[in-house]
Amino acid sequence: MTTHPAPGEPAHQALRIPLADGTVLSGDLYRPAGLPPGPVLVSYYPYRKDDIIGSLFEHTRAALGQRGYPTLFVDMAGTGASQGSYGESFDLPREGRDCAEIIEWAARQDWCDGTVGAWGVSYGGMTALAAASHRPPHLRAVTAVYATTDMYADTIAPGGCPAMLGRYAWAAHMMALGLCPPTLQDPGGGWRHTWHQRLQRLTAGEPHALTWQAHPERDGYWQARVVDAAAIETPALLIGGWADAYADAMTRVFGQVSAPKKLIMGPWMHVLPHLSDVQPFDWVSAMADWWDTHLRQAPAPPDPGPPVLFFARAGGWRAAQHWPPGGIATRLLFPAGHRLEEEPPPAPGRRDYHSDPLVGLAAGIWDPFGTGNGWPEEQSSDDARSLTFTSDPLPEPVLLAGSPEADLRLALPPGEEVHLVARVCMVSPDGRSTLITSGRRRVPGTSGGDAASRLITIPLGAAAFELPAGSRIRLGVACADFPDIWPTQASPALALSTGPGSDTVLRLPVSRAADRADTPADPTPPPAEPDTGWVTDSQPLYQLIQDKAAGETAVMFGASSRLRLPSGADMRLAETFTARMHPGRPDGAIVLACVDVSLRMAAGERVQVSVRSTSHRQSTAVEASVVLDGVTVVRQQWAGCPPPGRPGQENP
Question: Could you tell me if 244 and 463 are in contact, meaning their C-beta atoms sit under 8 angstroms apart?
Answer without folding.
Answer: no
